[in-house]
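Thread: Newbie trying to understand structure tokens

Hi all, I'm a second-year student working on a class project, and my supervisor (Dr. K.) asked me to get a predicted structure for one chain before our next meeting. I've only ever worked with sequences, so writing a 3D structure as a token string is new to me. If someone could post the tokens and maybe explain what I'm looking at, I'd be very grateful. Here's the chain:
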Amino acid sequence: MTAPARTPLRPPANTLSEHIRRTLGLAAPVIVARCGMLIMVTADTIMTGHAGPAELAYLAISFSPHITMLVIGIGLLTGVVVLVSQADGAGRQRTCGQIFWIGLANAAVLGTFWALVMTQGEFILHLFGQSDDLAEGGGRALGMFAWGMPAIYGYVATSMFLEGIGRTRPGMFVMIGANVVNVGLNWVLIYGNFGFEPMGAAGAVLATSLTRWVMLIALLGYVLTMADRDTYGLFHRIEGPWRLQARFLRLGAPMALSYSAETTAFMAITMMAGIMGAAEVAGFQATMNVVAFCFMVAIGMSTATSVRVGNAVGRRDPAGLRLAGWTGAGLIVIAMILLAGAVAFWRLPIAAIYTSDATVQAIILAGLAVVSFLLICDGLQAVLVGALRGAADVWPTTLIGFVSFWVVMVPAAWLLGPHLGGGVPGLLWGEAIGATVAAILLAVRFQVISRRRIAPV
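---
Reply by user tm_fold:
Sure, no problem. This is what the structure looks like when written as tokens:
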């Protein structure tokens, strides 16, 4: 049997400044790409908000279960970036392409499964105690998400493969173009231009689903036509596919559980907002959209940190692992402090962007006052998760996520929100408490892991 192609290992960074430069070089295009993904959601939110507060509420209540289902699958697909970065760091480039095809096959299965679940959107929202109106309108929108689920998972698997080999710019360019397509489709489908019936929230979601197929086709086309596609084994037979699948699931399954613990906790809090009323859930959605936009910086830094830690594991370089992880953590704290200040300073114009409804604006303003405190610890815990993910430390990270989000955050949000009448700000203070606990526990865990003997999975 022919051995996988092997090229020289990626050299380690020798100084802190080199670590910073490499981390930012990887993170910047990922941040732009992730921000582009969220700009798509933001465009949906803003354009739907101007179709009326009821349509914004439908979008908000449908988005929460959708993002929960989506992120569970993304957690499973995380095995792509971990395995690819470790193989690339170890000089086993041909294995990277085999991992990519395994990831793409899993994406297709996952996408089809969740698409079928989402067709029962109204039933799902009724289960979460939503009113008949919110369940009907939100269920109609949730059903539209089904059409794009195989595409978004395929796009994620493809982008994770590229990020794992340190090639982050293609995803950035695809996402920039996708936003142009999405806004145009929104204008047609939300408001009923060019003779179409106005669809409101459902039209915004359908536009997103169609755009996701454009994204997948564009990025997959790039990968299959790369000049070095043979180096990465993209058209080579997969050697031991079931063994590779087992490794993929060994990493991805606990990460899926970790992601699901976090996202289902946030979904539970969104449902609390929905129970408080349509205005509250609309204001909460807009506020969380601002949080999510800032969080994309953390996602980009987390991805870069994960790749650099994975490369260090592939080289069996414990000192490089430690410095890569703590460099990412330090950079995200600085970035989130700056973003928190910006949100606090521009609260009024931010609220006005989302809606002209005075009641919903007031809720957004009150929520954004808390967001400035939430961002820093939320960003830090995300990057530390990325560092631990790159080291393939998955089960302890999953347990920390469950404790932080379900044992601490959800009860705190219920106590400070609906129970004590704290409204949307109370829900957000609960989130801030949960993120703080997660950041502390993950920092301790990374300190422990970074002192141990390391080996690729």
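A couple of things are worth pointing out once you decode it. Residues 359 and 399 are 39 Å apart (CA to CA). The two ends are 22 Å apart (CA to CA). Feel free to ask follow-ups in this thread.
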